What we know:
The structure holds 2 protein chains of 2 kinds.
Chain A lengths: L4 H25 L15 H7 L4 H14 L7 H17 L4 H10 L6 H14 L5 H14 L2 H13 L5 H12 L7 H14 L3 H31 L7 H5 L15 E3 L5 E3 L12
Antiparallel strand pairs in A: 1-2
Helix pairs in contact in A: 2-3, 3-4, 4-6, 5-6, 6-7, 7-8, 8-9, 10-11
Chain B lengths: L1 H13 L1 H20 L7 H34 L3 H5 L5 H33 L14 H27 L5 H24 L6 H4 L2 H7 L13 H5 L5 H28 L4
Helix pairs in contact in B: 1-5, 2-3, 2-5, 3-5, 3-6, 3-7, 5-6, 5-11, 6-7, 6-11
Amino acid sequence: MKLNANARLLLVTILAAMVFVPSAQRLKLAPRQSVNVEMQVALPLFVQVAMAAGDRFLAANIAAIRALWVDNFKMQKEEFKVLAKVQENVSWLNPGHEDNYYIAAAILPWNGEVEAAQRILARATTARRFDYQPAFYYAFNLLHFKGDAVGASNWMREAAEYLPEGNNRLQMQNLAAIWLDRAGDLDLAISVVEAMARQANRGDFRRYLQQRVIRLEMLRDLREAAARYQQRFGRRIVALSDLVESGIVAEVPKPPFGYGFAINEQGQVVLQDSPPRAPGGQR
Amino acid sequence: MISFLLSAWRAGLRSRSIQAVLVLGVLLVGVAFLSAAFSPRQPKTVALDVGLSGVRFSLVLFALFWVQELVGQEIQRRTVLFALTYPVPRGHYIVGRYLAVLGLLALAAVMLGMLLWVVVLNAGGQYEQAFGVAPGARYWLTILGLWIDAAVVTAFALFVASLSTVSMLPLALGLAFAAAGKSLGAVTEYLARGADGGGEVMRLAPVVDAIHWFLPDLSRLDWRAWPMYGVAPDSTAIAGGALVALAYIVLLVTLAVLAFNRREFQ
Lengths: 283, 266
């Protein structure tokens, strides 16, 4: 029997549908290749500008959104280096980008990228003469991460210059004087990160900063407990378990993210920035 | 010349491909609104920033499509011969078409500019950012800069169309020209600052320097830092950028007229 043209087309349609429906159902069950969204590559500046059709502002926005999109909770130390490079590129393309200097101040120095954060903040200070915050964060990083109280005080005075005349400017100038003897002060660090969280518009980023505050508060409490231990027993703690065994704390707190706490060579409780070593030396 | 201008204006408004590009322009402004959601501190600024990039991209596409439709295709289909039977110099056709595209671009710039401003006002919801964006003259001066940028690209595409026998060539070369001209500022600044110590890249410095002789720096027409951050651009830089653009437009349109006068239509 010979089929006419329409019947042949109908037959092809039915055959195609018979292939499509079961294969689509099977495909639904097939495992998906997981895409690693973390920071692994920082494209050269030339390539970023070319990909934005020559528009440096657009290139800056694309890279800034990429830096914001990444899940900081799961990032490794090497990935923070890439994030720092991406954010430095944004700062070069558009030094006045507010989100960029803000997330650089909130993330980079706390993950070992102090120098990159400072370069971004210095550029933002120059580009945004109407905004005191880049200079303020620069000053805070000098004080907290580098212990440079004199340099921090100078930058605080510069930050005060970007405020209008009045009480706020006077308060900041007063802080510049107080900061001269507050290097390494955790209460100050907590209040700075808390203030950053309050200013965040995006809920997920605000939660990230709030968890950083919780982590810093735990660190402060452990340092206070370690000081009490030294006062009571006349010696420094060797391990965090000393605090539990002595009854000073009920348990070592577990921070909301990161690798917990450790004791550094000076016997001070610090945040651990990499997975703890297993007994055999394996991480 | 006026009759060439009016016929091109009407044809430009009726063109279907332009309606499609207009939809793209509206979509790009929509992307600006969505991009504000990524910003923790400055949603309105990000919406304005991405939106201005979208407006620039759309205006360049409009310019190239209009030149292709109103000049390139007329040459390819030989319908240009009907226009050339009028007892007027051939140059009137080219200049009339160019002015028509400029008028259409101005209309598109005003429409997209108003739409973008509505988007910026509504970006970020109730969140009050610490440093607002500047409305009014600063914003419209930035839109004017983008229009001048598109006018330069139009002149270049028109010049290519006056020589080319392939109607798609003005579109392809125009896109490359728009991207290269816009990149020139960033590349020059990168090299002037030592290219992050990249010796290999620094070898390109004399080449990039030489490119300034025949390619205008279109990034000099981008004044968005003023409405975004309230940082006023240097007035001599604004005047210089506009003067370079005007001189380049006159040069290219004159060359286009010369090429068109000498062209033989078989």
